[in-house]
Amino acid sequence: MTTPRAPRGASRQDQERALRTAAAMAGAVDLSGLKARAEAKAAQQARPAPSDPQSQGDGAPGPGIVDVTDQSFPVDVIDRSAGSLVVVLLSAAYSEQSQAMSAVLEKLAAADGGRWTLARVDVDGAPGVAQAFGAQSVPMVIAVAGGRAVTAFAGAQPEAAARQWLDDVLAQLPPEFGGGGGTGAGEAPSDPRREAAEQLAADGDYDGARAAYEAILHADPGDADAAAAAKQMAFFARATRGEPGAIERADAATGATGAEAVELALAAADEELLAGTPARAFGRLITAIRTTFGDDRTALRTRLLELFDLFDPADPAVLEARRGLAAALF
Fold first, then answer.
1. Pairing of β 85-91 and β 116-122
2. What CA–CA distance (Å, rounded) separates 173 from 85?
3. CA pair distance 307, 214, nearest whole angstrom
4. 221: helix, coil or strand?
5. pLDDT tens digits, one per residue of 171-199
6. Cα–Cα distance measured from residue 170 to residue 177, given in angstroms and rounded to the nearest whole number
7. C-alpha torsion sign, points 291, 294, 297, 301
């Protein structure tokens, strides 16, 4: 899953939220709902209630379908997904594949009679949503349940393939989400330790959250989710303590060498990753690796590998960066 990117010009808080969403999409920790609930309440006071996907009238999208904007996303997608599956379609008017995928999903939504909601997003009209999901192309389809993205695919698919994908997603969801709740499906039993760790993370106490996840991992060394979350929280703790402007300082210090250049590169890479631009962060460290040796090169390489661990190994940005790292080293 490609990492969500913060909107250009986003505040530091928005940047942190974008990367926390990335963590949720990676399956390690679900934080989006904790923040979105509070944001949604404030948004509802300032604008009309979200459209009802089950109602239909003049100009309405149709049963089981809702059109989503940057402003309505917290309620129409995040909040709505708390009780049912939401299938987000990122599309563009100029894209024939987008229109074909939209027609397929609209037909399936109507056929399923409200079992799930199709949330249509025009990426030109809602760039923040597109950037949050890290969309590199359209169409892109994301299944969201319980405030987290559970799976996704890119490109247009025929109706039969989309139907199979939906059936597979629904089969893995518990009955309260409109799913089949089959063998091994559904949510894991409530874990107070994990909920406490997630709350610490949502509150911005990343050091506390890291310690909480490490405690879970100590009790169960095989808990891959806790291991991934602990790494993510360690990154947030370090990156959010950094002084803003690291990218500009690194770019301006063209004559820096040795330990100074390494520290500037590491800080700038953290800031770029926090802003949701992993390819830039990876590229910066790889460029620095090409021109360093000994302990300096080791420090840069170690940090780069740590950043890789925050992502799905199959993420295109990680795969490309691994190739770049190999070229830089050999």
1. parallel
2. 8
3. 18
4. coil
5. 888 877 766 654 343 444 567 888 888 88
6. 8
7. positive
What tokens does 243 get?
A: 């002084």
Q: Kindly report whether the peptide bond that precedes residue 139 is cis, defined as omega within 30 degrees of 0.
A: yes
Give the chain's residues under pLDDT 70.
1-63, 178-190
For 110, the 3-state DSSP assignment is helix
Q: Which residues contact 319 (CB under 8 A, 6 or more apart)?
A: none
Question: Nearest to residue 16, comparing CAs of 263, 194, 244?
Answer: 244
Which of 297, 292, 301, 289 is closest to 328 using CA atoms? 289
* Cα–Cα distance measured from residue 51 to residue 53, given in angstroms and rounded to the nearest whole number: 6
Judge whether 211 and 203 are in contact, CB under 8 Å: no
**Pairing mode of beta strands 65-68, 116-122:** parallel
Task: Let me know: does 135 contact 187? Beta carbons within 8 Å.
Answer: no
Residue 59 zone, left/alpha/beta (φ > 0; ψ -120 to 50; rest): left
Count CA within 13 A, CB hemisphere, residue 190.
3
Structure token pair of residue 248: 């500009």
Do 141 and 123 form a contact (C-beta atoms < 8 A)? no
First to last CA, the chain: 28
Q: Looking at beta carbons, which pairs linking 280-286 to residues 24 or more positions away fall under 8 Å?
A: 281/307, 282/307, 282/308, 282/317, 282/318, 282/320, 282/321, 282/324, 283/321, 283/324, 284/250, 286/321, 286/324, 286/325, 286/328
